[in-house]
Amino acid sequence: MARITAGIATSHVPAIGAAIDLGKTEEDYWKPVFAGYEWVKEWVKDNTPDVVILAYNDHASSLMLDIVPTFAIGCAEEFRPADEGWGPRPVPTVIGHPELAAHLAEQLVIDEFDMTILNEMDVDHGLTVPLSLVFGQPEEWPCKVIPLAVNVTQFPTPSGNRCFQLGEAIRDAVKSFPQDLNVQVWGTGGMSHQLQGPRAGLINPEFDNNFLDKLINDPDDLRTITRLEYLRESGSEGIELIMWLLMRGALGYGVEELHRFYHVPASNTAVGHVVYETKEAASARAKAAAKA
Ligand code: DHB
Ligand code: FE
Question: Record's InterPro entries (predicted)?
């Protein structure tokens, strides 16, 4: 039986990808950003999943404004890095898991989430930068990835509560997949940032830190944050945080926070990053330790 063992959330700033690709991670500006990811890079060596269900948003790279699915699931065999204007990032092709993706699509539609099915798609920084932050620069990504694209770029975006509910449905759907798979769910984007208009450059550490506190301890409270509140408090792009709620919904209750990081700024963005373990994974680990 497939099981969700952990959740990771991280910002996905494109300049972070460029800093990695251009060998700038040791520069004074970038060093404190990458220091925040040393922990997860070690942890994931012993906790490499078989599959990551990766909630992210496309930034009009593959899903141009002619087609804007609210929720879309990548069912292809593979997904190439998208050309976002400077050529595709020099990172490995992302290998999908079509069987689990098809199962998720079926179960989620049965659960009344009207998913768009994507059988071909390139993936932009929203998906590849988190992979680089967690796995570094391998020849091949060490696990399969199911892209789950959420519309946060074009009004009307889904609510945070709906994303949380989708996460809960993903949890049920993963449990009913017969193959023995270790699955992680990742949420990307955020935290506070605004790239345009008179408030460009907005950062709100108070909002972000409250979000980090509540995400682990009181996620139900975060489910009530409206689109307007995200816009006002976390800037026009801060709404990317609803994908963190999708991750949180997929983990269930009794979750443990293993790691937390917050740093301002990277480019125009407040960088946040958490690693959570599910109750089931923690008790399986305790049992294995007791046996050894
Ligand atoms: C930046 C952040 C983002 O999340 C994004 O999608 C694009 C740019 C930035 O801070 O530059
Ligand atoms: Fe973004």
Answer: Xdiol_dOase_suB
Specify the residue with its C-alpha closest to ligand 1, atom 8: 13
User: Is the Cβ–Cβ distance between 130 and 13 less than 8 Å?
Assistant: no
Residue 273 catalytic? no
Helix H or strand E encompassing 258: strand 256-266
pLDDT digits (tens, 9 = 90+) for 269-283: 999 999 999 998 998
Q: What lines the ligand 1 site, CB under 6 Å?
A: 12-15, 59, 189, 193, 195, 237, 267-269
Mutate which of 195, 202, 243 for ligand 1? The one with the most ligand atoms within 8 Å of its CB, which is 195
Identify the nearest ligand to the CA of 202 by its number: 1
Closest CA to 172 of 107, 113, 128, 229: 107
What is the distance between the alpha carbons of residues 192 and 271, in angstroms, rounded to a whole number?
8
Interface pTM, i.e. ipTM: 0.98
pTM value > 0.90: yes
Task: Kindly state the tokens that stand for 32.
Answer: 């404190």
Centroid of chain to Cα 133: 12
Q: Locate 107 and state its tokens.
A: 């179960």
Query: How large a percentage of the chain has pLDDT more than 90?
Result: 94
Q: Which residues pair with 52 in a beta bridge?
A: 145, 184
List the beta strands (DSSP E) in 60-121: 71-74, 78-79, 94-95, 116-118
CATH topology of domain 3-291: Protocatechuate 4,5-dioxygenase; Chain B (3.40.830)
Atom of ligand 1 minimally distant from the CA of 269:
10
Identify whether 193 is a catalytic site residue. yes
Domain boundaries, the chain: 3-291
Q: Which two tokens stand for residue 144?
A: 């399969």
H-helix or E-strand spanning residue 244: helix 242-251
